[in-house]
Structure formats: structure tokens, C-alpha cells
Amino acid sequence: MSGITTVINQWRQTRTNRKKKLDAPDMDVASQWQLMWWKFKKHKLAVISAVVLILMYLTVVFCEFISPNLSDTRFTAYKNAPPQKIHFVDADTGFSFRPFVYGMKESINQETFLRTFAEDKTKKYTIHFFVKGEPYKMWGVIPSSIHLFGLGDKEGAAMFLMGTDQLGHDLLSRLIYGGRISLSFGLVGIVLTLIIGLLLGGISGYLGGVSDTIIQRIIDFLICIPTIPLWMALSAAVPRDWSATKMYFGLIIIFSVIGWTGLARVVRGKILSLREEDFTVAARLAGASDLRIIRKHLLPSFASYIIVSVTLSIPGTILGETSLSFLGIGLQAPAVSWGVLLQDAQNLETLAHHPWLLWPAAFIMLTVLMFNFLGDGLRDAADPYK
Hints:
The protein is of the alpha+beta class. The protein has helices at about 1-25, 30-40, 45-60, 65, 170-205, 210-225, 225-235, 245-260, 260-275, 280-285, 290-300, 305-325, 340, 350-355, 360-380; strands spanning about 85-90, 95-110, 115-125, 130-140, 140-150. A hairpin with a 6-residue loop joins strand 2 and strand 3 (about 115-125). Helix 2 (about 30-40) crosses helix 15 (about 360-380) and helix 3 crosses helix 15. The longest helix is centred in the middle third of the chain and has 37 residues, at about 170-205. The two termini are about 50 Å apart. The model is unreliable at about 20-25 (pLDDT under 50).
């Protein structure tokens, strides 16, 4: 019996040791990407930021379904209405598991002669999920009328969880729609910046000589010009009669033409340190073209640093679009972006009475912070041996 017990204990110990060996990362045989992932998971703030950004992008991708109203729907009876509170307890019926909002009644302030709103507790509207509302086309293709949440088609019912603007638009819906333009602007803009920066930086670092001199002088010229005035000058040159789509891509080209310089400098420096390595010389002796050596051998060697640089550049692109739209020389209504929405907050008198118009600024700050935290985590993970 003791022999059987010994064998069982040895078998259990073997299983435990094997499991520990499988769970423990093998630093000696792991790839660069595995090392980055293990190091990135330890950066809790970066992981949380990545989750928040994924949720934000999923929200704007399905903005027609998630927003309770369409972006251009006006509620003329509720201009500059304050945010409504979500309730679970009613004075008459007590606690309710289903959330609800009260109606709003309008009054005129006798001192300031401004329109004010207060809760009308005689009108109670229950919030439902997957309700039928205004018809829309998802991504302009799939017709539907189902919204994630709302009050349904009840007569006289209106829900403004973040208030309304001076034209009676639901601010929450416009924030979700505006996020599609502002958040996508950073991604689409960085793609063109990435292409230009990698191409010119690779040529400058690998070929050197005259091409290196010309490219570096162009970079010096662009860097020495103040960024915001240059953005404003180029944006002012864009025709005002362009459609929102043309203006969107026109601004992307402007930001990409200016923003590739930093990435090109990073790529050039890395390639200068790698172009004389043994694997580069071997590829050159094997007859590989210069473009193939840059694309297949050099760029993958420091891809992690490129990812970090791109991640940290996206917030700058988003802030640039927001700044130009806020100043009135970027995107214009009827296009909806966070910068366009912030135009209503330019008037301090209006802002003093309607502070909820600053909601777009809160979303911009959250996005920039999340990208910065994510970039910090990727920057630490890019050097997993540190």
C-alpha cells in the first residue's frame, strides 16, 4: 500500500511541476512579440486603457444602433434642456428595477428671462432596451429602426441624458456620432502618416547620400514652422464649398503631410544602426533589392518601436482636427465631430448657463489620456528585457 501511495504522490508532483513549467514564461525561447505581450499585461493602466479604447471604437462603429436618437433630429420644445437624471425610486410606486426618467416642464426665469426646465414628476417614462425608434441605415447600407435603449415611440416622451444644444439636438446622440469622425480621424490619418514616414525614413537611412540630405532638409524645414499656424494656413486653403467627406479627407492629407517627420526620423535612426548588421549584408549579397531588404528585414526588426510611435501620434491627430474644427476652419456643420460640437462652447455667457455643452471636451480628454497610457505601456513592453 505504501508503494502505491508513493507512486501516486510522485505522479501528482510530476503533474504539478509540468503545469508550473507550462504556465511560467520561457524567456529564452519566447519570440519578441511574446515578450512584449507578457510585459504589457503587467502594465495594468495600459490594459485598462486598451479596453476603454476598444469599447469606445465599438460604440462609434455601431453608433446608429447605440445612440437613442439620430444626430440631426431636433426637439424644438427642448432647446438647451439640461441632462435628465435616471431614477430607480419613485415617490408613489417606490423602488423599480427598470430605470426611468421624468418628463420636463419649461418655465421662464423672471430675473434672467432665460428658458429653464424642471422635472415634471407627473410624467414618468420607463427606459427600455432594444426599442423601436427612428429608422436609420447602419453604415448607410442596412436599414433598421431598433436602438439599444430609449423610450420607444411614446407620444411626448423625450430622453436627454446629456442635455440638448441650442437647436434642440440630443447631445448624447451627437457625441456618439461625432466620435465616429473624431476617433476614425486619428486612425485613418495615422495610416497615411505611417506610409510616408516609413517610406521616406527608410530611404533616408538605408541609401544615405543625396537622398538622405534632401529628405532631412525637408524635415528640418517642416519642423521649424509652428504646427498650428501651418495647419490653419493649409486648412484655410481648402475650398469652403467642399462636402463633409472631401473636407474630412482633405484634413487627413494636411495632417499626414505635416506629421510624418517625427516617424521618419525614428525610422532613419534605427535603419542606420541596422543596415550594416550581418543579416542585412547577407540579404544584400543574396541579391535582394533595397526595397525588399527595408520591408522584409529592417522594418520588422524595430516594429515594436513603430507601434509605440504610432500609438502616441494618434492623440495629436485627434487634437489637431478638434482644434481646427473648434476654430471654424476644419469640419463644418452639418458634419458632426467633437470639435464641431465644441463650437457651441465658445460663448462664455452661453457656457455659464449651459455647462453640459462641454461634454465633448471630456470625451476628448478621456481619449487622449487612454492613448497616452496605452503608449506608455507599449513603450515599456517594447523593451521586455529592461
